[in-house]
Structure formats: structure tokens, C-alpha cells
Amino acid sequence: MTAKDAYTVSEVNHYIAGMFDGDPFLNHVRILGEISRITVQSGSGHMYFALKDDRSVIDAKMWKGTQRSLTFLPKQGDKVIVTGAVDVFEKSGRYSITVSKMEKAGAGDIYQRLLELKRELAEMGMFDAQYKRPIPKYSMRIGVVTAASGAVIHDIYVNVKKKNPYAEIVLYPTLVQGEGAAESIAKGIQTLDSMGFDVIIIGRGGGSVEDLWAFNERVVAEAIFASDTPIISAVGHEIDSSISNLVADLAVSTPTAAAEAATFSYEEFLADLSDRRQDLSRRMEHALRDANNRLGHYGTALNAKSPRARIKLYRQRFVSLYDRLMSSMETGESLARQKLALYSTRLDEMSPLKRMAAGYGFVQKADGSRLKSVRDVQVAEEIRLHLSDGSLKANITEIKEER
Fold this sequence. Notes:
Helix content: 40-55%
Structural class: alpha/beta
CATH topology of the largest domain: Rossmann fold
Oligomer: single chain
Mean pLDDT: 86
Order of helices and strands: HHEEEEEHEHEHEHEHEHHHHEEE
């Protein structure tokens, strides 16, 4: 077979498109499903979304002009019945339904289950702030629960190493969507929690509700809540899009943000460590100076109270007292000498001998008693006269009393 016998991709896609166009069933079909990934193009106003059930998904679009027939504003999780034609976009080979009519069929089953589980877990307190653990400031061992390949683990690894090249990153590879994914994620959390990591990151890229559904399961929420290790959840691009984000200790929008939150800057850490070292050194120097000052003060006080110091103090007091005493005695002696000289002068002036030397004398009776009055003697009585150079005996021959 040669290349001439092969069809091009465009030819095949064109053939399939013709089959779709020629099928009356596909040209007018009603489909029941739940709205997911709904967006409105800002420029054209066209609406793009997906319809899904528990097993399958089909892309859908509704042109702006057709939307005038809507009686409600379609949103994520609405269960609707759409009418339209299924066609093929030949360039990509993808088929979708072009919706001409949409009617509401009640709340979508998947979205309703999510709301009910959120309500139940909220009533149990799993979303309460009081149970949120702080993310360690200096995490060195970081566990990651996500797919083994893909942008998530790559972004986390690159951004962690950028901030701290010495941080340890351990991946627990898990399924992130599909059957068994929730159990795989929960097992990863439990395993890393038992290994003593500083923080655990769980996450995956954005997607529809069904793509993120594994992170909305009860088993994952319970594993996060029971973990002793703080957990950062980076699931999807909307903080409240998954239950894991609500239960986790910290919810961020991207894996890059999770890496930033889990890691400290090693350069900033070194700078901070240097500042702290300098501050500690200053504090120690101040404490040592203060201790030396107190030691000197205590030494002085102790020396002042020692026996030797007391003896010296008492000796000084004794010498001072002795000096004051001697000075007082000398002063007293000098004063006494002055008084003695004065008294001697006065006594000398009052001395009978001095008076006698001046011509005075005194008289005694024969019995030695002093004669003071002429009435104390009689005529012929013997008396004795004492002069400065001797004494005389005499007899009274006449007594004359003066009045």
C-alpha cells in the first residue's frame, strides 16, 4: 500500500462531519446532563460548557443570540435538558452539541452530593479555624501527595529549591482522579504523616468538578483532619472548589503558592541568623558587664564586712578616739596648768607668810589656839607672837578694847 491509498486527517474528519450532518437523530437531540466548566467568552458572549453524568462528558456551546430564549442563568452544577445538534469541528476532530434550547431540570446530582457532604463536614467542625495548625516557619522536610508526573510536582520542586536548596522533598505518588484516587490520596497523607515531615502538600491542577472529585471525598477529608502534620492543599484554581481545601490547615490556589508557603528563604534565614547572633552577642556583653559590676559591688561589700576590714575599722576608730582623748587631755592639762598658776598666784597673795614678811604676824594663846579678840585673854596671861622670822613669848600687862 502506498501513500496514494491513505486518506488525510482532514479528509477523515470531513467525512465524519458529513455523517453527523446527515444523521437526523444527531441533528435534533435532547440531552439530560449536569453543567460543568461553564464559561462565557468575554468578546463574543458565546457560552461554552460541558454536560456530564456519572460516566460520560460531552462538550456544548450556546451562541449569544440563542441565549435570549433562556429563562434562567445557567451555572455550575445545574441539571439541565438541552436541545440541539451534534456536530464535528473538523480542525480538531472533536464533536460537541450546539445548543438551541436549554431548560432547567433541577439541581445536578453530583453538585448536590458535594453540597450535602460540605454541609455535613461543616457541622462536624472539620472546617473550623480552631483546628487549623500553623504552617512551620522553618520547614526542612516537605512531603508531597500528588501524581508522579505532571506540572504539579515539577512546580513544587522548582520553587522549593529556589528558596531553599537544602530542603528535602519526598513525593508520595498517587492517583489524582478516577476510580481509587481518593483512597490513594488518603493513604499518601497517612503514610507521610507517620514519617515526621514538617509539612505536607497535597494537590493537582485545575479541572472540572468531576476531575477534582477525588479531593471532595470523605476519606480524604478525614485523612487531612486526622493528620498531626500541617497540610497545605493546592487543588484547582478556586480556594473553595474542593473539600480538601476547606479541611486543610492552609489552602492556596496553585502548587507554586503551596511551595512558597511551605518553604523559607535560606538566604533570608542566614541574614536573620546573623542579626540574631549579633543581637545575642550584644546581650551577652551587656550581661557580662552587668555581672562584673555586680560582682565588684558584692566584692566591695564583702570586703567591708570581713573580719580584717572590721579590725581595721575598729583600729581606725580606736586611733581616732585615742587622738581625741589625748587632745582632750592635753587641752585639759593646759587648762589645769593655767588654773593652777592662777590659783597659786592668788594663794601666794593670800599667804600669811607673805603678809608676815610685809610686817604682819599672828598671835596664839599659850595652848596654841589662835587669838582673835582682846576678850579672849586676861592680864598677865602668856601669849605667843609669830613673825616672819620667828616667834616671841609675852605676858599681857594691859587690855584696851576699842569701841
